Amino acid sequence: YEYRQLANDDDIRLIVLFPKLDGSQEVRCMLLHFPLASVPLYEAISYAWGDPSKTQTIIVDGRPYATTTKVLEILRGMASPESSRLLWIDAVCINQDDLDEKATQIPLMSKIYCRATSTAVWLG
Fold this sequence. Notes:
Blueprint: E1 11-17, E2 28-35, E3 43-47, E4 55-60, E5 63-68, H1 69-78, E6 85-88, H2 90-93, H3 99-105, H4 109-115, E7 118-122
């Protein structure tokens, strides 16, 4: 998977988490870009990262994306059987391989959590 660059330093990505299909365990989503000042309603997720060496695959924008087993578990648990959900979760919404992006996104995290309609704390 290849991230599309954020246009501005105050832009963020949100995940559209698609509904579960017929009880499938596959996680499918897409990433959308928004200026933080005018994001639509979304939910944020707070969690402990877990072991970064244990990865699983989700489908992002139709392409395979390796993420931690913990993130896969969270997204499976949050997927609705009927409708999409708009979410922010740092492991996917921030390009973890881009140090410059992380340097601009991490300071925005308090605003990201404050603007969310709710924050789910995932305990496992």
